[in-house]
């Protein structure tokens, strides 16, 4: 059996779908490829839903800070490890690299420290 949590290779997914198209059932495919029956079933169900074996993009919480702002904050904190969050926030806001939220309102120094 494949280790729990590991992603299946593209080749293995293609083999699962091909065996299913040949008329084999979930249990027979699982025994042949030494996988769990639920893994085979989920792979085939995803293929039937999307028509592809490609992974769908994952979604998550949108980022509040741009990559540039994160890098700037990281460089400030590594440059002086005794800097407080408030002083980093003040310097980031003064430097003009304040982030833009979804409502396009720049952060002020007073509420910037909440994002750190």
Automatic annotation (TrEMBL):
InterPro entries, per database record: Homeodomain-like_sf, HTH_SB, WH-like_DNA-bd_sf
Domain annotation Sleeping Beauty transposase HTH: ranges: 5-51
Residue ranges of coiled coil: none
Entry-linked Pfam families: HTH_SB
The name this protein goes by in its record: Sleeping Beauty transposase HTH domain-containing protein
Provenance organism: Staurois parvus
């Amino acid at each position: 059996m494949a280790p729990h949590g590991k992603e299946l290779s593209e080749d293995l997914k293609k083999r699962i779908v091909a065996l299913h198209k040949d008329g084999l059932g979930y249990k027979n495919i699982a025994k042949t490829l030494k996988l769990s029956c639920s893994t085979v079933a989920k792979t085939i169900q995803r293929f039937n839903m999307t028509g592809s074996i490609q992974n769908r993009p994952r979604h998550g919480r949108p980022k509040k800070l741009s990559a540039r702002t994160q890098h700037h904050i990281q460089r400030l904190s590594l440059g002086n490890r005794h800097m407080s969050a408030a002083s980093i926030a003040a310097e980031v806001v003064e430097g003009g690299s304040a982030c833009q939220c979804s409502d396009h309102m720049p952060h002020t120094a007073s509420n910037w420290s909440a994002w750190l």
